[in-house]
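[recover] target loaded
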């Protein structure tokens, strides 16, 4: 570093994209047009499970203004998938890919129309004639595991994508040592990402004759790989660019319009544009996984855990997407952030004919923690031990051995996070331990208030042996002194302010004021791969890459090389997959830790639950930009509030019935709780840049179980199926004789 007085870490620097976005000057994919562009529309499946016998596009192609209709026979390598290439690009007969003639859900694409105008392309869709042979379908993952169930993918008997096990300790001894055993069954359902910008994109041939796709995504180089694989092109012939991205939350990790746009431009040598409406966006991109968990936990009279048993069943939908990884994370977190000597867990990832499930903020941990923290709160109630106190008795800490029989990476701060959450909310510490202060009750007898607590942990970075890396390039310009710093980086700013934070890191790493840094980002033509904007990894991974690149560039600068360029590819410590029999693994190289306390008001007549107060404690390692970080916490809490209380996607036999924001309800400004208190801890991660830990997902994780605990505190009734809608809550209350008759 040349000048340590210029450090900009921990400053609330205004986002570099703020003015353009609030004025409307910044283009999103749907805002970009090219002279002579054509328009694309997609013909989606009309069956949940069927063989496509024939696709007759001739009536559509006869419509004036239609340029071409693409079908399965036009795709050179008709397959794609982020982890497993198990999904056809276009479903239909012909081609060399076995099974590509089968639609397995309503989200499958059958044809892509390209026309002179969007209106003509829309009208042409109805003219495409598709002949189907219906196949038996299955929509319940437990039914799908039966030997007699319809098989969606022959290479996966019983529709099992993956099956994970953990076998640790002596279960008989664990149950024998337990003074109290609690059992529960927990269910979660789909969640729609509901990002502001629906899917859209533009493709064209660039000045170097590359098929170029301008789109919103989370990993430019992965999008590039999926495109060039399907088109059977050399990697250098495909380019992916991200302009402004209107939200992602995991919903853009998998393909939507990228491959079909590239296919059309590659074949026609003309620019092509597509833009989905909100209905299409909800119907045709993946969702958060519905997961069912059966759990049994035992503890001694003093509150010490002795054994846990769990069965976790996740609905992958018709294709894997990231399901095997999401359920792997649920498998790891369903035991909560606790030391447990005896563990027996079985986790199943199951194909069904429902819409595919995939990445969503939290990546399996919110579902798993609904069960884990629900069980811990049940134990606290059964043993009459304070919910914070019982967590501190059992919390993982530095040196703890996980359920996977290996130590947690150094830097475990779960006890400190729990204590900070309690201290900053409604707990008081005495010589006897921690005690929750009960809320004052209202004069209105129909309204009851309660408080609840939950916590958790989640990985930072890719897990279970998946290759992890991040590249950065730094160019120092000037003569006698550094006049400008150019940061080259492929990382996606999906609305979280990543490019601002990365620029702050670059300024600090080089030792220049922030205004000397310019970022060239999210273009496969200018950067190597930086990995995905997911897994709470981008600040952690990018910061290490930026520091490495800056060190190289500064060394060259001091050797009077002008301009001085440095490139660095950061690789963190390796991880390993679960042992198939025991579950032993070194699953992650770093974690983030979170705890949340909430206060709710329950109307026992209507079942309506209002979130009144949230205290969210996060160990972030090191704050890069305080304002943005607090925004991440508040946004995650509100999104989790929707997941816990409001968002209910109705799917019947694989078809989504409420694909509108008028019927699929998400929180608005009127639903935001009066207070969200962000409590930031800065215990440096040993291998994080500047000590940074990832945290974008963490505030989402424990909110639903904390709300469930608060509902119980208010009413004495457990609600275990998410979302906790008024209808569900009032039904549970009436079952226990509470409220109007």
């Amino acid at each position: 570093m040349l000048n340590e007085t210029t450090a900009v870490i921990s400053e609330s620097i205004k986002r570099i994209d703020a003015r353009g976005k609030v004025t409307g000057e910044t283009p999103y994919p749907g805002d970009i047009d090219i002279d002579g562009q054509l328009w694309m529309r997609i013909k989606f499946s009309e069956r949940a499970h069927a063989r496509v016998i024939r696709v007759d596009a001739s009536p559509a192609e006869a419509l004036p203004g239609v340029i071409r209709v693409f079908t399965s026979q036009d795709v050179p390598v008709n397959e794609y998938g982020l982890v497993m290439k198990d999904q056809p690009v276009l479903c239909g007969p012909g081609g060399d890919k076995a099974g590509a003639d089968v639609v397995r859900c309503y989200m499958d694409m059958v044809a892509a129309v390209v026309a002179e105008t969007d209106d003509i392309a829309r009208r042409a869709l109805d003219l495409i004639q598709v002949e189907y042979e219906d196949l038996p379908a299955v929509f319940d993952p437990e039914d799908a595991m039966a030997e007699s169930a319809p098989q969606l993918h022959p290479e996966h008997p019983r529709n099992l994508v993956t099956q994970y096990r953990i076998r640790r300790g002596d279960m008989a001894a664990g149950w024998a040592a337990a003074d109290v055993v609690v059992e529960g069954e927990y269910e979660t359902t789909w969640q729609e990402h509901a990002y502001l910008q629906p899917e859209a994109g533009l493709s064209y041939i660039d000045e170097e004759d590359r098929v170029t796709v301008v789109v919103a995504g989370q990993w430019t180089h992965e999008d590039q790989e999926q495109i060039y694989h399907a088109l059977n092109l050399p990697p250098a012939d495909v380019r992916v660019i991200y302009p402004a991205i209107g939200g992602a939350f995991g919903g853009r990790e998998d393909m939507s319009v990228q491959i079909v746009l590239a296919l059309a431009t590659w074949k026609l040598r003309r620019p092509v544009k597509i833009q989905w409406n909100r209905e299409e966006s909800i119907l045709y991109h993946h969702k958060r996984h519905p997961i069912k968990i059966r759990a049994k936990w035992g503890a001694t009279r003093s509150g010490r855990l002795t054994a846990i048993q769990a069965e976790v069943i996740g609905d992958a939908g018709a294709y894997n997407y990231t399901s095997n990884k999401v359920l792997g994370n649920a498998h790891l977190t369903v035991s909560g952030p606790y030391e447990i000597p005896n563990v027996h867990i079985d986790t199943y990832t199951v194909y069904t004919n429902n819409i595919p499930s995939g990445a969503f903020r939290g990546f399996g941990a919110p579902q798993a923690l609904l069960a884990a923290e629900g069980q811990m709160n049940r134990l606290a109630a059964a043993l009459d031990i304070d919910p914070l106190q019982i967590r501190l008795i059992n919390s993982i800490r530095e040196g703890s051995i996980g359920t996977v029989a290996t130590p947690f990476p150094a830097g475990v701060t779960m006890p400190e996070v729990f204590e900070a959450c309690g201290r900053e909310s409604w707990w008081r510490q005495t010589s006897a331990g921690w005690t929750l202060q009960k809320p004052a009750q209202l004069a209105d007898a129909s309204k009851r208030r309660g408080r609840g607590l939950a916590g958790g942990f989640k990985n930072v970075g890719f897990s279970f042996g998946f290759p992890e890396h991040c590249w950065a390039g730094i160019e120092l310009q000037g003569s006698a002194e550094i006049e400008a710093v150019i940061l080259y980086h492929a990382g996606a700013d999906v609305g979280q302010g990543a490019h601002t934070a990365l620029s702050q890191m670059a300024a600090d790493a080089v030792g220049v004021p922030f205004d000397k840094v310019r970022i060239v980002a999210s273009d496969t033509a200018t950067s190597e791969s930086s990995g995905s904007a997911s897994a709470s990894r981008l600040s952690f991974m990018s910061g290490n890459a930026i520091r490495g690149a800056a060190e190289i560039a500064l060394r060259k600068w001091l050797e009077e090389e002008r301009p001085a360029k440095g490139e660095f590819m950061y690789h963190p410590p390796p991880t390993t997959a679960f042992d198939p029999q025991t579950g032993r693994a070194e699953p992650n190289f770093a974690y983030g830790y979170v705890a949340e306390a909430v206060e709710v008001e329950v109307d026992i007549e209507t079942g309506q639950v209002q979130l009144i107060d949230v205290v969210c404690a996060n160990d972030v390692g090191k704050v890069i930009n305080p304002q943005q970080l607090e925004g991440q916490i508040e946004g995650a809490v509100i999104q989790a509030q929707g997941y816990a209380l409001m968002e209910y996607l109705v799917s019947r036999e694989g078809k989504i019935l409420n694909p509108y924001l008028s019927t699929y309800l998400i929180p608005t400004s009127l639903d935001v709780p009066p207070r969200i208190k962000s409590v930031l801890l800065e215990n440096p991660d040993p291998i994080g840049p500047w000590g940074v830990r990832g945290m974008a997902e963490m505030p989402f994780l424990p909110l639903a179980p904390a709300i469930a605990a608060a509902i119980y505190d208010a009413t004495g009734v457990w609600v275990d199926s998410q979302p906790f809608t008024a209808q569900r809550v009032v039904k549970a209350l009436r079952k226990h004789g509470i409220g109007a008759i």
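[recover] notes: The longest strand covers residues 305-317.
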